[in-house]
């Protein structure tokens, strides 16, 4: 039987990782057999034959979804090399949602699969409970908080990266203590969640903290004295801001700087500090 002449074909798949051009029988031979000419190289044929539906769990929000094998095959043909997704469609289309979902997933396993915005509402409810417990204690003890004093606090990120925290953690900068996320020892995630700003918007967080420090409206903030520091609590967010009463040295000038800023995990925290005398109104 005479040997058939060889013909060069080009693999049609953009995701081809084999030989783009491959050899085969001439088109006439396939036509005589009533067959279509080959369009996939051997590497792609093996890959296509091995495809099945794929179950994926979103690494941000933990939503589970299925990728049909047809989607993978069409992507391989028309787009390029198939890489299994790590995010669901919602998290792919909304990066801010994904970042918030990651923060929520880090909290506890019980809350891991919750809607991030549901968590925001739950945190807001917890903040309201914190304020209510504080007000109940003040009423019961007949304590009237002193009128808040407006404090002009630093607003520049570069200052946060230079100034150190309290003496017992003198090796840590304000930036590390406040603007790192919780997994690295900071409070950025909880602050961004309470303020409803993007978790990466560091300057927005700093601006909002400075706004709380400057606020002297007693209907919006509480102010106490905690040792040598001014303690401010914003009613609407439950954010606790502790500011050094003595200005800090920064080059040739002095500035008012925070000691810390965070959202307490326990609704009892504010009331407990006042009840134990750690915060006073004088």
- Give the strand order of the largest sheet, numbering strands 1, 2, ... along the chain: 5-6-7-10
The radius of gyration is 30 Å
Q: What characteristic shape results from the CA principal axes?
A: elongated
The helical percent reads: 25-40%
What number is the mean pLDDT?
84
Annotation, overall tally of beta strands? 10
- Main beta sheet, described? 4 strands, antiparallel
Low-confidence segments, given as residue ranges, are: 108-113
What portion of the residues fall into strands of 2 or more residues?
15-25%
Straight-line N-to-C gap = 107 Å
Give the helices and strands as they follow along the chain.
Answer: EEHHEEHHHHHHHHEEEEEEH
What would you call the structural class? alpha+beta
Count of the domains: 2
Q: How would you sum up this structure, described in words?
A:
The protein is an alpha+beta fold. It folds into two domains: 1-50, no CATH class; 116-275, no CATH class. Helix content is 37%, strand content 16%. The chain has eleven helices and ten strands. It has helices at residues 27-32, 42-49, 69-78, 89-93, 95-105, 116-141, 157-160, 174-179, 188-195, 202-214, 269-275; strands at residues 7-10, 21-24, 54-57, 64-67, 221-226, 229-234, 240-244, 248-250, 253-255, 258-262. The strands form four sheets. The chain has a four-stranded antiparallel sheet with strand order 5-6-7-10. A two-stranded antiparallel sheet has the order 1-2. α6 (116-141) packs parallel to α11. The chain is elongated. The relative contact order is 0.10.
């Amino acid at each position: 039987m005479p040997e058939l002449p060889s013909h060069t074909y080009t693999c049609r798949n953009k995701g081809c990782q084999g030989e783009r051009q491959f050899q085969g029988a001439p088109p006439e031979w396939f036509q005589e057999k009533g067959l279509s000419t080959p369009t996939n190289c051997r590497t792609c044929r093996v890959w296509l034959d091995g495809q099945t539906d794929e179950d994926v769990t979103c690494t941000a929000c933990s939503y589970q979804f299925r990728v049909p094998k047809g989607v993978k095959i069409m992507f391989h043909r028309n787009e390029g090399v198939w890489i299994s997704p790590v995010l669901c469609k919602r998290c792919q289309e909304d990066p801010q949602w994904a970042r918030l979902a990651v923060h929520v997933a880090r909290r506890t396993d019980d809350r891991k699969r919750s809607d991030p915005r549901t968590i925001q509402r739950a945190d807001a409810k917890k903040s309201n409970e914190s304020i209510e417990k504080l007000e109940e204690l003040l009423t019961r003890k007949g304590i009237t908080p002193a009128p808040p004093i407006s404090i002009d606090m630093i607003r520049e990120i570069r200052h946060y990266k230079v100034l150190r925290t309290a003496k017992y953690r003198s090796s840590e900068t304000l930036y590390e203590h406040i603007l790192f996320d919780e997994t690295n020892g900071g409070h950025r995630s909880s602050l961004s969640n309470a303020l409803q700003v993007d978790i990466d918007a560091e300057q927005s967080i700093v601006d909002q903290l400075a706004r709380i420090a400057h606020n002297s409206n007693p209907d919006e903030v509480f102010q106490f004295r905690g040792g040598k520091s001014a303690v401010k609590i914003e009613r609407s967010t439950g954010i606790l801001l502790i500011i050094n009463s003595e200005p800090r040295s920064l080059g040739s000038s002095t500035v008012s700087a925070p000691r810390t800023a965070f959202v307490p995990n326990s609704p009892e925290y504010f009331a407990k500090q006042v009840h134990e005398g750690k915060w006073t109104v004088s």
